[in-house]
Amino acid sequence: MVKAIKVMLIPNNVQKTKMFQYAGASRFAYNWALAREKENYEKGGKFISDSELRKEFTKLRHSEEYAWLLNISNNVTKQAIKDACTAYKNFFKGLQKFPRFKSKKRSMPKFYQDNVKIQFSNTHVKFEGFSSSRKANKQKMNWVRLAEHGRIPTDVKYMNPRISFDGLKVKKLEKQKRRLQRSISRSYEKNKKGESYCKTNNVIKKEKLLLKRNHRLTNIRKNYLNQTISEIVNRKPRFICIEDLNVSGMMENRHLSKAVQEQGFFWFRKQLEHKCGDKGIQLIVADRFYPSSKLCSCCGNIKKDLKLSDRVYRCACGNIIDRDFQASINLKAYGERFAS
Question: Among 7, 212, 246, 331, which is most buried by a count of CB atoms within 10 Å?
Fold first, then answer.
């Protein structure tokens, strides 16, 4: 069985710098391969295979102008060239639009790691080529900490491991938004005249910029939700079962309100209902008081004293399981009872 797992990494500053270098090299190799294919096609030549392009790129790496590429794992650039060739072939097959060159500012930084050389432990993941030194203290730089321990199995074969910086854009925009809000507040206080506030041209510019940041953040979150919903619906399940959450009650918790608001539960449910209707998939909504997390999936016992901080469910019958995974099992059983 092939299973996709996405986990967050917590690199230090040195590792983060190395990752950005890998992502930059991957983008460079992709754009280079796409430019070569385009140039060759305009001259009337046939399609250049990725193996030929990789041989040509190897010679390029050893030139003085591109010597910086020698500090990057060869597998990173090889896979980027292969991706460019695949995208180019898919265009001529009519499967997608013409591939665009990757922009340094707008494209998501990401790169590939060799599936044979990448290693996982319960707490760390080992990358290829971060440090070539054999000294123990230098070798530590190759091991990047995982945010969730024990999530990725260590005794399986890995396929197509990718590293992407999908959360940095949101964090950066959130930081810009906070700075703009504080700057606007200071400007209002500075230009206050008696009991009234004077809105200067600079304040108007900052407010327009703040509005753009809010729209950008909203669009990113909605796009992520749409992609998630499409991924679920495209699997063509017989039914989908979700919970009827008390969102207004969750918003009253001052520690969780911001996180709950950003998840967009209402938008997610409405879009899921719409897409399930289009695909002919039955959407089942579990009752709000159905104990999906507190109900033991083995013996049926309900653990009433289960707290939100208890991430692992432990039952007297011996069942020890992640509470969210158990909730999904119980929701599946709930959906099977009501599925038509």
Answer: 331
Q: What is the pLDDT of residues 115-136, one digit of tens each?
A: 888 889 889 999 888 877 777 7
Tokens found for residue 284: 């089942």
Token pair recorded at residue 287: 């009752």
* Token pair belonging to 242: 């979700």
CA distance to 75, 240, 263, 306, per residue, from 246 (Å) = 48, 19, 14, 18
Compute the distance between CA of residue 155 and CA of residue 109 in angstroms, rounded to an integer.
29
Handedness of CA 128, 58, 29, 48 (dihedral sign): negative
pTM of the full structure? 0.55
Rounded Cα distance between 283 and 286, Å, is: 10
pLDDT digit string (tens) for 191-239?
888 788 888 899 999 999 999 999 989 888 888 888 889 889 988 899 9
**Which residues contact residue 6 at a Cβ distance below 8 angstroms, ignoring those fewer than 6 apart?**
none
Specify the DSSP class assigned to residue 196. Answer: E
pLDDT of residue 53: 93
27-46 confidence digits (pLDDT tens): 999 999 999 999 998 988 88
On whether the CB atoms of residues 169 and 220 are closer than 8 A, the answer is yes
Q: What is the pLDDT of residue 332?
A: 93
Closest-CA residue to 74 (of 114, 36, 104, 108): 114
The pair of three-digit structure tokens given for residue 88, joined into one six-digit string: 């180019």
Q: How far apart are CA 217 and CA 76, in angstroms?
A: 30
CA distances 222 to 109, 167, 215, Å, are 20, 14, 10
| Alpha-carbon span 170 to 46, nearest angstrom | 42
> Inter-axis angle of helices 50-61 and 13-42, to 10 degrees?
120
